[in-house]
Amino acid sequence: MSDYYLCSDAFVLTSIFEGLPISLLEALSAGVIPVCTAVGGIKNIVTTDIGYLSEEVNTNSFLKTVNAYLNASASTIQQLKHNGKELYKKEFSMASCALKYDALYHSA
């Protein structure tokens, strides 16, 4: 699956319900910009400095969000890709998760 992310410009996830999708984390790790509906755990990950979220869960709102992505400047796109990769490394990578588990284990 990672080959698809590495060949992609955007990760589009239209959903009415989600937890924390692994597919979103995989996209971030590849520097792919998320364009998603603001549901479940997605809205806790995708902020304005990471990607694009629709204001509502309906077609018109989502199309507005897609258009915002399509009309973004090249510098904005590059910054979002960088921010997504950094968020992944800091919060969700194997290394960061191992450190967090180790800290939790030793705090008990």
What does this protein look like?
The chain has 108 residues and is mostly helical. It contains six helices and three strands, in the order αβαβαβααα. The chain has helices at residues 2-6, 22-29, 42-45, 59-70, 74-92, 94-107, and strands spanning 10-13, 33-37, 52-54. The chain has a three-stranded parallel sheet with strand order 1-2-3, with helices on both faces. Helix 2 (22-29) links the parallel strand 1 (10-13) and strand 2 (33-37). Helix 2 crosses helix 5 and helix 5 (74-92) runs parallel beside helix 6. The longest helix is centred in the last third of the chain and has 19 residues, at 74-92. The model has no long low-confidence stretch (mean pLDDT 95).
Q: Characteristics of this structure?
A:
3-stranded parallel beta sheet; Rossmann fold; 108 residues; mainly alpha; globular; 6 helices
